[in-house]
Amino acid sequence: MVSEQILKSRTALRKELREARRALSAVQQEEAACGIAEQLHQLPLLNHARNIAGYLVNDGEVDLGPYIASQWQSTPSKQFALPVLHPVCKGHLLFLFYSSHTALVKNKYKINEPALSCQNVLPTSQCDVILMPLVGFDIKGNRLGMGGGYYDRTLAFTRTKRHSHDQLSPNNPKLVGIAHDIQEVKSLPIAPWDVPLDAIVTPTRTLIFNNT
């Protein structure tokens, strides 16, 4: 169980950090997007990744657009996917393949996502790397999301396999949090459902964690 005090602390921190990233200027956001692209180009986890799940920018998040566009041009063998609200399993995500020709629709949060098509679904377990937007993080790799729990529910299987050390099960997707530098806090109040990250990338640095 998580105490009411911790929940209130997470809610207040989430509000503060969302306001801070939304306050960044267009120039600052553009610089952050370029910085993230440079950091991701140097991230070993992505070197041999073929299926990469990302996200479309919303609510002041760091824009992955420049990185994805550069990979489409330089490494056509890499395939990208985007999260879609699961039409059946409430509170969960699906990942659908994404290209420059993908038809997009707005979900109930007014966020663009690929139009649902069963043939374009990429099973979560077949994602090599998932680039996840963060609201907040600390140097220990703890993460704070938007509060809906979509990623935590969808990726709960990775926590089970990390703890079971099951060598016969498929490899977990590598989980990489993406954030602005201003989203770092000294210490983040954590919850038991938080999914551990393998790395956190900001426009100026990359933090790698030994969670496997």
UniProtKB/TrEMBL annotation:
It catalyses: (6S)-5-formyl-5,6,7,8-tetrahydrofolate + ATP = (6R)-5,10-methenyltetrahydrofolate + ADP + phosphate. Its EC number is 6.3.3.2. Belongs to the 5-formyltetrahydrofolate cyclo-ligase family. It comes from the Bacteria. This is 5-formyltetrahydrofolate cyclo-ligase. Gene3D superfamilies: NagB/RpiA/CoA transferase-like (3.40.50.10420). Its cofactor is Mg(2+). The keyword Nucleotide-binding applies. Transmembrane segments: none annotated. Keywords: ATP-binding, Magnesium, Metal-binding, Nucleotide-binding. The lineage of its organism: Bacteria, Pseudomonadati, Pseudomonadota, Gammaproteobacteria, Alteromonadales. Pfam families: 5-FTHF_cyc-lig.
